[in-house]
Amino acid sequence: MSLAPVARPASLRDHAYAALRDAIVSGRLEPGARLRDSELEEWLGVSRTPIREAIARLEVAGLVRTRRAKATEVAPLDEREALSAQRIAAALHELAVREAVPQLTASDLDAMRAANARFAEALGASDVEGAVTADDEFHRVAVDASANPLLGTLLEQVTPLLRRLERARFSSLAGRDSVSAHARIVELCTAGDVDAAASATRENWLTLERLLTHPDPA
User: What angle do CA 217, 86, 131 make, to 5 degrees?
Assistant: First the structure.
């Protein structure tokens, strides 16, 4: 395993979790890669305790698995699990928008438009990482505006698993459909149409299943 060193924040446990999660989701740590404590300690610059705590969280999220003899490795990419996570994420984001729309400010709506512009730009440049980041930023506006503290925690349990598979969508032309879908969501939020905005958000999150069932021939 050869990864660039990362800076250490105040919370070593969260630092270890976020670094490992991002490396797995991005594919820098491939399915089946062994996660050895000594190598992780050197890479992350933290002790074994926060690393084992991070791995326990990642195992709950379905990103790592412990085999016999306590060998820990990155979990294989399981489309069925990812699609199950997607359905949960769709429902949670639908709830976020339903609760957020009455509270969205002009600044929130501007933030959504700006995130969508970055999303479109990243897709145009075939920048997968940028597209994923911008998409997260777009949907995070409603999650934060909902003021529901449980939504972020629950989404953290399912989103990383989904993102591993969702990268394939952003690398295809079909991913560009989400730009117009985002714009429609902003339009409905601006109009204060709670039901329509929530429904559009749910459909936006369910596109991956459709793309896997009917992949882009290009």
Answer: 60
- 57-112 tens-digit pLDDT: 999 889 999 877 678 999 998 888 888 998 999 999 999 999 999 999 999 999 99
Q: At 1, is the secondary structure helix, strand, or coil?
A: coil
Residue by residue, DSSP assigns 7-62 as ---S-HHHHHHHHHHHHHHHTSS-TT-B--HHHHHHHH---HHHHHHHHHHHHHTT
Tokens 């993102």 label which residue? 163
Residue pair 74/24 in contact (Cβ under 8 Å)? The answer is yes
3-state secondary structure of 193: coil
First to last CA, the chain: 33
What DSSP state is assigned to residue 214? S
Alpha-carbon distance 59 to 81, whole Å? Answer: 13
Rounded to whole angstroms, how far apart are CA atoms 173 and 140? 24
Q: Which domains does the chain have, with CATH numbers?
A: 12-74 (1.10.10.10), 79-213 (1.20.120.530)
Predicted TM-score (pTM) of the model is 0.83
Contacts of 140 by beta carbon, 8 Å cutoff, 6+ apart: none
Nearest to 175 by CA among 115, 135, 117, 133: 135
